[in-house]
Each structure stands twice: as C-alpha cells, then as structure tokens.
C-alpha cells in the first residue's frame, strides 16, 4: 500500500502554490521517506509535495532504473537553463494521459537536501524534464496546462468518466 494518497486532476488543491520551507526537521524527513515510498510504488520517477496535498516547496525524484539515485530538493530554484527538448510526459496526478512537452534541455538548480544543506544539481535529459515538471507542480501548474484548451477539456472529461466508473465499481463490490 502506498503511504500517501496522490491528488488527481482536476482537483483544485493541485492549483495551490507551495510555501518555502523554513525548517528541515525529522517530521520533514519522515514526509520525504513517505514520498519516496509513494513514488516508487506508483511507479513514478518524481513526486512533488503538492501532489500529496502538502503545500510546501519539496520534491523528490529518481530517474535511475535501479532506484538508487534518489534526489531531494527543498526550496528548489533554477539558476541556469539552456537549450530545448521535447519529451513525452506523464503525471501521477493525470493518470493514463501522456503528451509531448517542450522544456529546457539542461538546467542548474539549487536548493537544500534532506539534511538542510545547500546543494546544486546540474541536470539534463530526463532528469531535467522531471525536475521542471515537479517544480511546475509546486507552482500549481500541470503539464496539461501546456495543451490547448480543447485538449485539456478532453483530458478533464476522460478523467471525470474514469473517476465515475471507479466510484460505481467500488459501490457494486461494497
Ligand atoms: O510528477 C509526477 O506526477 C511524476 C511523473 C514525473 C514525470 C514523468 C515523465 C516526464 C516528466 C515527469 C511520473 O513519474 S509519471 C510515470 C513515469 O513517467 C514512469 C514510471 C515508471 C517508469 C518510468 C517512468
Ligand atoms: Zn506530475
């Protein structure tokens, strides 16, 4: 069982802007552990605190195949960006939907790690995409916001139908 529930589009709580984190303490480290567990279980390669209804500037990521390159970023800030790449993106908050999104190819991002120490990460390819996607979540932005209003409306309808069917199935088997 995943530790935390992931909010799904069009839940309005996904639109909340995350507040900066002032103190990195054991409670935050417990949340970080729970977020990794939830992300690996999903499975996913990234997770922003916003997606688990915690509106603080925290994201976790691990784009490695063996789940052995975990990254924690608290109060992340992009200080350099270079180039462009277009990548097919998914989102645990927008299940079953993928779309090609264009973002910076390489970024340099600063923040704090789980011990409250300052870190700088140079990221390219999928890690750069993932960090930018997760940082969007912290601003209340979703990858479907890059789509046309018509496509976004189709995504909304598809997910509302999916949620309705899930509720009906749960009622029948209760
Ligand atoms: O933020 C999220 O919802 C997580 C999302 C991150 C992401 C994926 C792809 C491009 C940009 C950002 C996901 O992890 S979706 C699932 C996924 O991509 C994946 C799952 C298992 C193995 C490999 C990829
Ligand atoms: Zn996402």
CATH superfamily: Peptide deformylase
Bound molecules: ligand K1U, zinc ion
The proportion of strand residues reads 25-35%
Helix content: 25-40%
Rough shape? Answer: globular
Structural account:
This protein has 174 residues and is of the alpha+beta class. It has a single domain (12-146), classed as Peptide deformylase (Peptide Deformylase, Alpha-Beta Complex), CATH 3.90.45.10. Helix content is 31%, strand content 27%. The protein contains 3 helices and 5 strands; from the N terminus they run αβββββαα. It has a 5-stranded antiparallel sheet with strand order 1-2-3-4-5, sandwiched between helices. The structure holds ligand K1U and zinc ion. Ligand K1U binds next to strand 1 and helix 2.
What can be said about this structure in brief?
This protein is 31% helix and 27% strand. The protein is an alpha+beta fold and 174 residues long.
Which tags fit this structure?
Peptide Deformylase; 3 helices; binds ligand K1U; alpha+beta; binds zinc ion; 5-stranded antiparallel beta sheet
